[in-house]
Amino acid sequence: MILFARLMNNSKSWAIFAGVTLVAAFEFSRIHVPYCVKNKFKYRCRYVVKHFVAKAARLGSVLKINSEPVLYRNLLKCIRFIQRIDEKNFKTINIIDSTAKKCKIRIYSPKNSTDDLQPAMFYYHGGGFCFNSIDDYHHILLPLASELEMILIAVEYPLAPEHKYPIPIEEAFSETNYVLNNLEKYDLNIDLNRIVLTGDSAGANIATVLSNKFRFINENLPMLQVLINPPTQYFNMLLPSMIKYASIENFMPRSKMILWHLGIGHVKNIQEDFLIKNYHTLLIDEHFREKLKSYTDVNLIPEGYRNGFGYYESYDKLKNLVYPQKIIDHEKNLDENFKIALKQLFNIDVSPGLADDELLKKQPKTFMIISEQDTRKDEGLIYAQRLSNNGVQVDIALYDNVFHTSFFYPEETNHPMRGDIVSFLKKNL
């Protein structure tokens, strides 16, 4: 403080300090805040903190302290308080923490439940397969369980890059299957014909993949799926919404999280570029590539969702550049193990939106929540249309000017997502 006071006695120092402060204030005010956000100051503060933490994690990764996602996760734990919720306001819900095989689960159940069989929701949290936990989602799931008046089971899963694909998917499936086959252990009266799989972001991806897996075992399980801003494919990384809204994710790019999910903890810029520019699509044969192109065709998005958005018109002029014809020289030298890892992105357990029509026909009735200001918007709409084309009933709720993680901040964003989910389930269960 003494040093600061001495510096401030100098008029030049005052001028520099004032200039830096004005620039910082100007940049702070320029941070884009969707109009659905109630407390714009708080949103900007959180944005700045996450930027700072992301840069610190990046630096730590360069210094080989640990991988960037692990550092980011641990740094956030140091500075972030888990969003609190007063459980006394939810006296009708029992909350039990338990385990399913290796991982933690949290069971929310109505206290006034009878011996009658009840429907149940399994919930998989978001976080790019790298972040968050069921504790982070308690402030969301407790009110949801209370409004639904049904059993809700939050499922933890191991995080990447320490636990790379397919571990998170396999563990989530194993835990869910274990609970369903050991209901007496948890004292649950669940109707196996009224199961709902739900998740947001990466959790929505898990719910979709698990729907595929369970439908092979039992054509009536799950009865419904609720997908909140689902990432459904990693084939075309240059869909219109990805180009339009990429800047929103610049402090934690989706491309990095995809590679972390594959177990690549220290991502190089050249590796990220290889994915972003769709060079990975040249790693498969032409016939397979053309088929996957048809599964991610922007023209599958109904005109009603495209009309009035100029970025779709601009995309028509760029679409010949979306898929490269050859891998440029300096990127041919990428490690072969990296290319082998990337080929996993075409597996339907990673990209359920690349499933063939015969598999899609088996999917349950679906409620899909889509946010306009989200890079995942288009792939969600494309997947919804492919499901519909294959006879699956799909209800879509598209929220204008809402961003990817809005569901995680229900008290800060003015959206009816939770209420819409409750209405859909009460109508269909």
Molecular structure report:
The protein is of the alpha/beta class. The chain is built from 18 helices and eight strands. The protein has helices at residues 2-8, 11-30, 40-62, 68-79, 138-148, 167-181, 202-217, 240-244, 254-261, 269-276, 286-295, 303-306, 310-318, 329-332, 336-343, 357-360, 377-389, 417-428; strands at residues 93-100, 103-110, 118-124, 151-155, 190-200, 224-228, 365-373, 394-403. Helix 5 (138-148) links the parallel strand 3 and strand 4 (151-155).
> How does the major sheet shape up?
8 strands, mixed
Whole-number average pLDDT?
A: 90
How large is the radius of gyration? 23 Å
What is the spatial order of strands in the main beta sheet? 1-2-4-3-5-6-7-8
Shape: globular
End-to-end Cα distance, whole Å, is 63 Å
Q: What is the percentage of strand-forming residues?
A: 5-15%
Stretches with pLDDT under 50, minimum 5 residues: none
Query: Helical proportion?
Result: 40-55%
Total beta-strand segments: 8
The ordered string of helix (H) and strand (E) elements is HHHHEEEHEHEHEHHHHHHHHHEHEH
Number of helices: 18
Structural class: alpha/beta
Q: What's the arrangement of secondary structure elements?
A:
Layout: H1 2-8, H2 11-30, H3 40-62, H4 68-79, E1 93-100, E2 103-110, E3 118-124, H5 138-148, E4 151-155, H6 167-181, E5 190-200, H7 202-217, E6 224-228, H8 240-244, H9 254-261, H10 269-276, H11 286-295, H12 303-306, H13 310-318, H14 329-332, H15 336-343, H16 357-360, E7 365-373, H17 377-389, E8 394-403, H18 417-428
Parallel strand pairs: 3-4, 3-5, 5-6, 6-7, 7-8
Antiparallel strand pairs: 1-2, 2-4
Helix pairs in contact: 3-4, 6-7
